[in-house]
Structures are given as C-alpha cells and as structure tokens.
Write a structure and sequence with these properties.
Strand content: 25-35%
Distance between the termini: 31 Å
Structural class: alpha+beta
Mean pLDDT: 92
Largest sheet: 8 strands, antiparallel
Helix content: 10-25%
Order of helices and strands: HHEEEEEHHEEEH
Number of strands: 8
C-alpha cells in the first residue's frame, strides 16, 4: 500500500480503524536492524470534550497541549508519550486533521528481528512477552520520545495493513483508563482471540488527588 493510500485508509474514526489494525505489521528499521510486530491488540481513542467525538479517556479530552499535539493530525504518524515516569507508548494517529484521535498499540507478535527484540527486552521470559503490553511493544520496536510525530511513510517506520480483516476479534473496556472512559460504555479495546501476546485486562487504579487533577487518562 502506497503512503497516500495508507493515509486515506487511516482517515476514519479510530473505533473503525482499531479492529482493522489487528493483523497489521508495524516495522521499525534502525542502524542495528529491523524489528516487525504483527499487531494483536489495540485501543481506540477519540477526542476533545467539546466535539461530537468526545472521549473522556483520551489524552486530548481537555484540549490541545504540547504533549498531545501530534494526536490532532494529520493521520499516518506516531503519537508517542511517556507514562509512569519510565515507559513510552505508541499510537497511530488516524481520523481527519484537527479532530485528535488515534489507536494505542497495546500488544503484538514479533515476526521479524526476534534477536534484536530479545536484546531490547531481556526481562521477557518467552517470546510471546516481547511485545505484550504497550510499553513492551514500544521497547521491542525501539520506539522512544524522539519518534513522536514520526511518519509511517515507509522510511524508518512502515505499516502494512492486513489483506483481510481478522475473523476472531473480541472487544471490551480499555485497560487502566480512569473514570467514565474506562467503563463498559467505551468497549474500544480490540484484540485477536486466542493470541498469547495479548495483554491481561486490568481496570484503572484509584486516582490520587494529584493524578485526578492532571490528564483524563492513565494507561
């Protein structure tokens, strides 16, 4: 798929894009090699509270900030954020520019560059754990702060959508999202049934006053 076609494919509501991303392959090429991950679990996030696509679980719910700027588009880029003071997580920006939406890459199976991924994830006890969880996925792919806003144009990063939509897709509440955005009203976590790389569900931890006063989402 050419980059223009990919951008058009991503130019949709994240709730529609997310299940279509299952089975897609995201590759990252660096000076030390390429690691490719087949996506097995993703979450959709919509946007600002004053929009028709308001999402209380989204980083952009309270408005545009330096942190979430990339979420506002255009599609076809990575939105990378730092969380819990130690981890990076990666999202694929989708939807029209100005709407702020994306899909969090929660888990996947390493299908290329297994040795390089193992070197980046020495704590993994088995290969199914190399990219099991959003922080682990980013680590296995070598994604860091410097990749926020990186294009999926086939240069360092390449996204190859699946030829067909996966047949066994399950959905449920998003993982670790505080407040209404983590409820059953937002079943926007999608995963492939029976995949060992899919992460375990966990509800959000009760927020402290300091955390509640900050971002709308903890994940």
């Amino acid at each position: 798929m050419e980059h223009e076609e990919l951008v058009h494919w991503l130019l949709r509501d994240p709730v529609a894009v997310a299940p279509d991303l299952l089975g897609a392959v995201l590759a990252h090429t660096t000076a030390v090699g390429t690691v490719s991950v087949r996506l097995t679990e993703v979450e959709a996030y919509r946007g600002h509270r004053d929009s028709e696509h308001a999402d209380p679980g989204s980083h952009s719910y309270n408005g545009r900030t330096a942190r979430n700027e990339v979420m506002w588009g255009p599609p076809g880029h990575l939105y990378v954020y730092f969380t819990y003071g130690m981890h990076f997580c990666a999202n694929i920006v989708c939807g029209p520019a100005g709407r702020s939406s994306g899909c969090l890459l929660r888990a996947g199976e390493v299908v290329e560059g297994i040795e390089l991924a193992r070197s980046r994830r020495p704590a993994a006890r088995k290969d199914a754990e190399l990219a099991r969880g959003p922080a682990r996925l980013a680590q296995a792919l070598g994604i860091g702060r410097e990749h926020n806003g990186a294009s999926l144009d086939g240069g360092a990063f390449r996204l190859v959508p699946p030829a067909h939509r996966a047949p066994a897709i399950l959905s449920g509440p998003r993982v670790g999202v505080a407040g209404a955005g983590g409820s059953a009203d937002y079943p926007w976590r999608f995963w492939l049934q029976g995949e060992p790389s899919v992460s375990a569900y966990r509800a959000a931890k009760p927020r402290t006053r300091a955390r509640a006063a900050g971002n709308a989402v903890v994940r």
